[in-house]
Amino acid sequence: MQEEYDVFLLTKPPFNLRSELCLKLIVRSGNARLYLAGDGVYHLLSGIQEIPGCLVYACQEDLEARAINSREKVIIPDNFYSVFIEDMMENCRCTYTF
């Protein structure tokens, strides 16, 4: 049996109320995968990748569009949305989108 975890898609920028709720849920989860897309990639500038029990993925196109070069402790798949959907379909306990 494969390990299950909570999958989060975050497209809101830091300091947004929805982002803050998302981060609280990730911390409570303890076993999460966080996918950053759109303005959500700005969270890499605030050290979101340091949350314990959380693997962070980021969309390459969105990083480039916002000139964000933070690559430490972040997985940047070639096909972000394909990896996200596969993770959601095969390994997901719960899915949250913000």
From TrEMBL:
<dbReference type="InterPro" id="IPR027396">
    <property type="entry name" value="DsrEFH-like"/>
</dbReference>
<protein>
    <recommendedName>
        <fullName>tRNA 2-thiouridine synthesizing protein B</fullName>
    </recommendedName>
</protein>
<dbReference type="Pfam" id="PF04077">
    <property type="entry name" value="DsrH"/>
</dbReference>
<dbReference type="GO" id="GO:0005737">
    <property type="term" value="C:cytoplasm"/>
</dbReference>
<dbReference type="GO" id="GO:0002143">
    <property type="term" value="P:tRNA wobble position uridine thiolation"/>
</dbReference>
<dbReference type="InterPro" id="IPR007215">
    <property type="entry name" value="Sulphur_relay_TusB/DsrH"/>
</dbReference>
